[in-house]
MBL fold metallo-hydrolase
Amino acid sequence: MTLHHPAYAQLRQVTPVAAVMLENNPSMYALEGTNTWILRAPGNDECIVVDPGDDDPAHLARVAGAGTVALTLISHRHHDHTGGIDKFVELTGAPVRAVREELRRGGGAGLEHDELIEAAGLTLRVLRTPGHTADSVSFVIEDEGSVLTADTILGRGTTVLDASDGNLGDYLESMRVLIGLGAGRMVLPGHGPELPDLETVARRYLAHREERLTQIRGALDALGADADVRAVVEHVYTDIDETLWPAAEQSVRVQLEYLRD
């Protein structure tokens, strides 16, 4: 499979329905940058925008110029997905829907699990997929079967669980929900390139988390039940560059909470 990232400042059509605009905000957590997804039925000028991105006026203007925005959807609260909300509303006037009330704009409602959203000639199904954050959602494009997974499943690597409100038990259940959608669904992630089969990736993520839990249990056996987060990271995460250890610390903190509950 050829990976088509990055493609900054370009509207790249990924499926007949979904196009992506990659924001130039790379970081340890955002990989190459934030994927803003622009969804529309073929031939329809109206579109749905998923995650306008950070407060980057040039990026927001490019997204707003891609068509008449009927609705903006927020996958989760992180600033690299939501920092540009107010500027984007100024540009488009479109309502913003999100799980968290403070992220909603223009009369936009919340997002309920299994709810169907109809706009821009499309039908999207909301899946609550918490774990990365408490408010994380995914969106199934019912018209073609692809799934926008935001940061619950990335285009490469694995997801960091936010130590402030992430939850490993929730995350494991979210993987099972995504696996239950079945094979053959394209992954449209919040960061990184698209992937061809959601079930395969979700099963790999689930196995990876279970493997890490086994490793952390082993670390606690070796270091003592009260070992701190950093000591566990240094013991377990010998397979990644030390520059990534701060991100690993967040996930380890969440995993320790899960094991010590």
